[in-house]
Specification:
Layout lengths: L4 H32 L16 H41 L10 H6 L10 H14 L11 H19 L10 H37 L2 H8 L12
Helix pairs in contact: 1-2, 1-6, 2-4, 2-6, 4-6, 5-6
């Protein structure tokens, strides 16, 4: 299992590409809704029934697509968590980095612990990267800027994307639909940048860990067995 990090990284990058495509579709669906509902704001509730039927249909499609996207994100997230586990496992068992603060399992568990998930997953990924690069003195290595950008955008896009989720109803306020479209657009743009940053992180960690594979191959290659002269 230790030697499949590279292949798993390729799968993760492909799925992250799919994630970017989903966010791009969300933007494509949300932009017309935002402009079609810009004039309906204020304290007065304006039901969607006063809008163009095509706009109402687009709003329903956009909200339903949000739930489809969320379902796909669960699958992508599961595979990303598996990659995080494998990458850290490679660091701890193959590279044998010193003074690691996280176990392989803790890298995953912290994503699901309230408050701790605001900073511990970032520290776990940081440890995986730096300990792969400098196994003995990784604590002294500077933090790559892309890691900081990725995590800040990750924390920012989550509430924006959550605010864009609601259940479609024909009597929905047009101003609410406008706000949902705005959150969906901004959240998706941030999510695309954040995903691109994570692709760079995955590729960089893979590139670092790939340097250890020739050494592993030479250590595991079976030695030549002397030929028995009595055997033809």
């Amino acid at each position: 299992m230790n030697y499949r990090v590279g292949n798993h990284s390729i799968l993760v990058c492909v799925l992250l590409g799919l994630d970017i495509l989903l966010h791009a579709i969300q933007i494509w669906l949300s932009v017309p809704i935002f402009f079609d509902t810009m004039d309906y704001s204020g304290t007065m509730i304006t039901p969607l029934t006063v809008l163009n039927p095509e706009t109402v249909e687009r709003i329903a499609l956009n909200l339903n697509f949000s739930y489809i996207k969320l379902s796909i994100h669960f699958i992508i997230g599961f595979i990303i968590l598996a990659w995080i586990y494998r990458a850290h496992h490679f660091t701890s068992t193959v590279i044998k980095a010193k003074n690691l603060r996280f176990t392989d399992g803790a890298c995953i568990v912290y994503f699901f612990i309230p408050f701790a998930n605001l900073f511990m997953p970032y520290r776990a990924i940081k440890e995986t990267w730096l300990a792969s690069e400098n196994p003995t003195q990784w604590q002294n290595e500077p933090t790559p800027a892309v890691l900081i950008v990725w995590w800040l955008l990750f924390l920012l896009q989550i509430p924006l994307c959550l605010l864009s989720f609601t259940v479609f109803a024909p009597d929905m306020d047009a101003a609410l639909a406008n706000g949902i479209a705005l959150f969906a657009i901004v959240g998706s743009v941030i999510a695309i940048i954040q995903t691109l940053a994570f692709v760079l992180i995955v590729l960089q960690i893979q590139n670092i860990q790939n340097k250890y594979k020739p050494k592993i191959s030479s250590q595991t290659k079976p030695k030549d067995v002397p030929k028995n002269p009595l055997v033809s």
